[in-house]
């Protein structure tokens, strides 16, 4: 099972479901985006300024994509033990492990609506004695996809 989005991934390996916010480093997308922005910026701003701005844009975009590929968070839900754990990783090495709850309950997920710049996003959080903010979802269809996956695909054996 592997549900694939551009800013989060849902997968299952054995009894462990993983929700990851690692953005894949896609060379084709990187080349298409940067070459089209180079052409547009040179055409729009002129040769000298266009090349300078295009190079700065390229460096910024490369840094953003590389950072989002290197530093990411995984949420692991174990069906056997019922634990829900958050792992913060850098280059696939665990930097911090946080046990969110011993007993997973899908009813504890909350989705708060966030409106910024006219766009509605959803903050996915898991409520225990504190609110654990997990992921920002870009639209309602992604929210429904995750809700459906959690309610239909995750079955805790040890209740």
Properties at a glance:
alpha+beta, 3 helices, 6-stranded antiparallel sheet
Describe this structure in words.
It is a single chain. With about 160 residues, this protein is an alpha+beta fold. The protein contains 3 helices and 9 strands; from the N terminus they run E-E-E-H-H-E-E-E-E-E-E-H. Strands 1-2-3-4-5-6 form a 6-stranded antiparallel β-sheet. A hairpin with a 2-residue loop joins strand 7 and strand 8.
Brief characterization of the structure:
The chain is an alpha+beta fold. The protein is 36% helix and 38% strand. It has three helices and nine strands, in the order βββααββββββα.
What about the largest sheet?
6 strands, antiparallel
Q: How far apart are the termini?
A: 24 Å
* H/I helix tally: 3
Spatial strand arrangement across the major sheet: 1-2-3-4-5-6
Q: What structural class do you assign from the helix and strand content?
A: alpha+beta
Give the SSE layout.
Elements: E1 2-4, E2 9-13, E3 16-20, H1 27-45, H2 47-70, E4 71-78, E5 84-90, E6 93-101, E7 109-116, E8 119-127, E9 131-137, H3 140-153
Antiparallel strand pairs: 1-2, 2-3, 3-4, 4-5, 5-6, 7-8, 8-9
